[in-house]
Design a protein that fits this description.
ATP binding; Kinase-like_dom_sf; 2 domains; Phosphorylase Kinase, domain 1; 308 residues; Transferase(Phosphotransferase), domain 1; 10 strands; disordered N terminus; single chain; alpha+beta; Protein kinase domain-containing protein; six-stranded mixed sheet; two-stranded antiparallel ribbon
């Protein structure tokens, strides 16, 4: 059997997500609103048992309708994963009218917001983030999980520091693959969607690699490589896959970074760079590792300062 195609299994590190029918207020003190989505509200909460802070996603059942399946899918997947770059789910509470998902709290907001605020990031910052994303994908793909909706809005930052930890979230459109279950469903966000999805071809984990390439392009330039307000025109551009690096945004970006982007955005998924190959690309090694070493040195000096 192909190594990639495996049934979803609980994480060995996880003891399983606890589910409760009792009122959540018995265990948590709900506080300020952290975020508001189409179908949910996220609030900060303090665990009365431990005093630890958490984020609680509150979903009214009445507003979910056909989206209930997406919530079930996200809960099922999050209950099986345990990785530093994937958001952690702690426990679930369910009442007659609401679902409460208790998750680790992050304070840095969406990667999208950081890009919007700064316009673009440096090569070192971008490589650091892309390496984290690739590590998360390597883990998910090894468990047979394909995210299918990778984008800056679904990447959360642990805090507001320059080299914050990144957390992959929003697994509603994710899919677990098996030998008998190849994927053909069209899904994802238009700008980040892979050409094989648009062509209604059978596809696999390489769709996440394509999306990572789009994210890298956006991180370095603040622009999308393929864009048009007319969706059919946009989709044709994606399926053709012709990449341009306008001099105004790209004149100071290294050829090594452009080389990796080109390899991420190869239209044929069989020829597209793999997650492992990307992690070993010279640009990731030179820039991503340097950023991690810089962060480790900063943390070391901070600890030394606190001891003094």
């Amino acid at each position: 059997m192909n190594k990639f195609f495996r049934r979803l299994k609980p994480s060995k590190k996880s003891k399983g997500t606890q589910k409760h029918k009792k009122p959540i207020e018995k265990y948590y003190e709900l506080g300020e609103v952290l975020g508001q989505g189409t179908f949910s509200t996220v609030k900060k909460a303090i665990d009365k048992r431990t005093g630890l802070p958490w984020a609680i996603k509150i979903l009214p059942k009445s507003g979910l309708n056909e989206n209930f399946k997406l919530v079930e899918n996200e809960i099922e997947i999050l209950s099986t994963v345990d990785h530093p770059n994937v958001i952690k789910m702690h426990e679930i509470f369910e009442t007659t009218d609401k679902i409460y998902i208790v998750m680790e709290i992050v304070t840095g907001g969406e990667l999208f917001d950081r890009i919007e605020r700064l316009d673009h990031l440096t090569e070192q910052e971008s490589a650091y983030l892309i390496k984290k994303i690739l590590n998360a994908l390597k883990y998910l793909h090894s468990k047979g999980i394909v995210h299918r909706d990778l984008k800056p809005e679904n990447l959360l930052l642990s805090d507001n520091t320059k080299y914050a930890e990144i957390k992959l979230t929003d697994f509603g459109l994710s899919k677990v693959m098996s030998d008998q279950d190849v994927m053909k469903t069209a899904c994802g966000t238009p700008i980040y969607v892979a050409p094989e999805i648009l062509s209604r071809k059978i596809y696999g984990p390489q769709v996440d690699v394509w999306s990572t390439g789009i994210i890298l392009y956006v991180l370095l330039s603040g622009c999308a490589p393929f864009y048009d307000e007319n969706l059919p025109v946009l989709f044709n551009k994606i399926k053709r896959g012709k990449i341009h690096f306008p001099s105004q945004e790209w004149e100071n970006i290294s050829e090594s970074a452009k080389d990796l982007i080109r390899k991420f955005l190869i239209v044929d998924p069989r020829k597209r760079i793999s997650v492992d190959e990307a992690l070993n690309h010279e640009w990731i090694i030179q820039n991503g590792d340097y950023a991690e070493e810089k962060l480790s040195m900063f943390e070391f000096l901070q600890e030394e300062s606190e001891e003094d």
